[in-house]
Amino acid sequence: MGADQIRSSLLRQVESSSDEFIRLVSVVVQAMVQQLDEASTETVPPPWAKPKTVTERNRELLLADEQIDRGEYITLADLRKKYKRD
């Protein structure tokens, strides 16, 4: 069942329901929205991310700078050309 069908079905049910049922549905929906809002503000690192020390991060930055100095990089214009879709 697609989202539009579910929406239509829910609207029909709400229109033919008692005030008590509508209040109950409203409370449930508000609780779910609040729970989703709280979950969306949590920052969860991706599973492949591992915590690094300041020393490790600095080492990576220095290595990246060295790569740039050697010309081992791609410009934004070249990247756009590489992935340009017709």
Can you characterise this structure?
The chain is mostly helical and 86 residues long. It has a domain at 3-41. 69% of the residues lie in helices and 0% in strands. It has 4 helices and no strands. The chain has helices at residues 3-15, 19-41, 54-69, 76-82. The longest helix has 23 residues, at 19-41. The model has no long low-confidence stretch (mean pLDDT 87).
Short description:
By secondary structure, the chain is mainly alpha-helical.
Keywords:
4 helices, mainly alpha, 86 residues
SSE order and pairing:
Blueprint: H1 3-15, H2 19-41, H3 54-69, H4 76-82
What amount of the residues lies in strands?
A: under 5%
Number of strands: 0
Shape: elongated
DSSP helical segment count: 4
Low-confidence stretches: none
Compute the gyration radius: what is it?
A: 26 Å
SSE arrangement, N to C: HHHH
- Residue share in helices? 55-70%
Structural class: mainly alpha
